[in-house]
Amino acid sequence: MKELIPTINEIVKYGLQPNLTVTDKEKLLERHIVKIYNLYFDIDYNFDEAEYPDFDKSKLPDIRLNVSSNFKDFGFYKTIIAIYDIDNLKNNAIGDAIDDLSDIIIDLLEIKWRIENNSLADGLWYFQLIFYGHTQQHILDLLNYLKQKNG
Q1: What is the pLDDT of residues 5-63, one digit of tens each?
Q2: Half-sphere exposure of 89 (CA within 13 A, CB side)
Q3: I need a labelling partner for 116 at 20 to 30 A (CA). Which of 2, 4, 25, 81 fits?
Q4: Where along the chain do its domains lie?
C-alpha cells in the first residue's frame, strides 16, 4: 500500500487546484485511476475499533469547479441503467464525467485524510467500504467515458 497516497495525490490534484498545466492529462488521469482500482484488490488491514473524528467535507475547495477547469471538454454522456437487461432498450440514463471525477476525488481525499489523521487501518477500511459502494461505479463510468470519447 506504499503506492496508495502517491497515487491518490496524482488524482486529487485535479480537484484541489484549478487550471493545471499537465501534458497528457487525460492519459495520466486514466493511468492513476486504473492504479487505484488495482490497489483496491490489495487491501489488507486489521479492523481498528477506535473512535475517530469524521472527515469534514465542508473544508474542501470547490472540487467540481476545479475539475471543470482542468478538463474543459468533460461533459455528459449516455449510460445504460441495467446493462445485463438486454431486452430493455429504453432505460438509459445521463452520466456526467465531471461529477464522476469529482466524486472519486472526494472519496480519495477522505481515504487519505483517514490514513493521515486517524490510522492506516481506518483509512483502508474506508477505502474498502467506499470503493465497493460508490467509487468503483464512478471509476468504471469515467473510464468508459474516456474510452468512448477518445476512441
Answers
A1: 999 999 999 999 999 999 999 999 999 999 999 999 999 988 888 999 999 999 999 99
A2: 1
A3: 25
A4: 1-13+91-151
